[in-house]
Amino acid sequence: MTATKAPTEPPGQRTVRRPGDRLFAASAKGSGIFILLVLAGVAAFLISRALPALVAPAEDIPGGAGLAGYIAPLVVGTLLAAVLALLVATPLAVAIALYVAYYAPRRVAAALGYVIDLLAAIPSVVYGFWGLTVLAPALLPFHEWAAEYLGWIPLFAGPASNTGRTMFTVGLVLAVMILPIISAISREVFIQAPALHREAALALGATRWEMIKMAVIPYGKSGVIAGAMLGLGRALGETMAVAIVLSGGAAATLNLISNSSPSTIASNIALRFPEATGLDVNTLIASGLVLFLITLAVNMLARWIVNRRADFSGAN
């Protein structure tokens, strides 16, 4: 038996890369390298400026409890506000995305999608003033009710705030701010669900909701998770809206309805940096380094989830 030779590409059929293609590939590669260099430069700057606070004695750090004691309540406040916003915004965003993609008439879907996306263009300062002047007073009855009937839960232990400037209010404001991000990504993923799967489900007698549950949601699950993680990254770094609404304390607590809620890293930096000098500046930069690492981890996790979705095809 003679071995068969692999078919060779005819000389005239070789792919020739045009100068424009080579220029585009080089510029794209250079842009990616530039972004990595900028990221490395930011990390190097934060580490170098935070180093004095990392090696300073505990009594020299504001509060006298050391750098870990200073940053820990801020980390708790940052994660608490962001997770609360994520828990509120994700179900609403998914419901809106499904309605726009599969239930709403074409004209209503286009208008509603535009309005939802427009929420992302509103400045965070506007959200902060809305939360302070409208949402905080409106939530006062709920704060009192929660402290009276749900006080056995640590999240609502009270005493209830008499101003409404609580972590619960901040979480709702952040939920509205990240809603368009999660909704837009979820909507695009749901629309891309394979038509073959959707038509097969309907042909077998499934209702529209059963078709969505069996064919659309499983396909778009990773995209929803990725959108939620990107929204979480936005909530973690939000500054002005939190600084305007929250009346933060210094203790690390999970209480959502009292005035003793800890501040967030970003809002604490914004409020204290203008008057900070010397080691106080290094301490604030050290807290910024912690926020940088948290946000970087969240975005890397979101990218990993998005890349996993690329392995799913309509034939799977």
From TrEMBL:
<dbReference type="InterPro" id="IPR011864">
    <property type="entry name" value="Phosphate_PstC"/>
</dbReference>
<feature type="transmembrane region" description="Helical">
    <location>
        <begin position="67"/>
        <end position="100"/>
    </location>
</feature>
<keyword id="KW-1003">Cell membrane</keyword>
<dbReference type="GO" id="GO:0005315">
    <property type="term" value="F:phosphate transmembrane transporter activity"/>
</dbReference>
<dbReference type="InterPro" id="IPR035906">
    <property type="entry name" value="MetI-like_sf"/>
</dbReference>
<comment type="similarity">
    <text>Belongs to the binding-protein-dependent transport system permease family. CysTW subfamily.</text>
</comment>
<keyword id="KW-0812">Transmembrane</keyword>
<keyword id="KW-0472">Membrane</keyword>
<feature type="transmembrane region" description="Helical">
    <location>
        <begin position="166"/>
        <end position="185"/>
    </location>
</feature>
<dbReference type="InterPro" id="IPR051124">
    <property type="entry name" value="Phosphate_Transport_Permease"/>
</dbReference>
<keyword id="KW-0592">Phosphate transport</keyword>
<feature type="transmembrane region" description="Helical">
    <location>
        <begin position="112"/>
        <end position="130"/>
    </location>
</feature>
<dbReference type="Pfam" id="PF00528">
    <property type="entry name" value="BPD_transp_1"/>
</dbReference>
<dbReference type="GO" id="GO:0006817">
    <property type="term" value="P:phosphate ion transport"/>
</dbReference>
<keyword id="KW-0813">Transport</keyword>
<feature type="transmembrane region" description="Helical">
    <location>
        <begin position="239"/>
        <end position="257"/>
    </location>
</feature>
<feature type="domain" description="ABC transmembrane type-1">
    <location>
        <begin position="75"/>
        <end position="302"/>
    </location>
</feature>
<dbReference type="GO" id="GO:0005886">
    <property type="term" value="C:plasma membrane"/>
</dbReference>
<dbReference type="InterPro" id="IPR000515">
    <property type="entry name" value="MetI-like"/>
</dbReference>
<feature type="transmembrane region" description="Helical">
    <location>
        <begin position="23"/>
        <end position="47"/>
    </location>
</feature>
<feature type="transmembrane region" description="Helical">
    <location>
        <begin position="284"/>
        <end position="306"/>
    </location>
</feature>
<protein>
    <recommendedName>
        <fullName>Phosphate transport system permease protein</fullName>
    </recommendedName>
</protein>
<keyword id="KW-1133">Transmembrane helix</keyword>
<comment type="function">
    <text>Part of the binding-protein-dependent transport system for phosphate; probably responsible for the translocation of the substrate across the membrane.</text>
</comment>
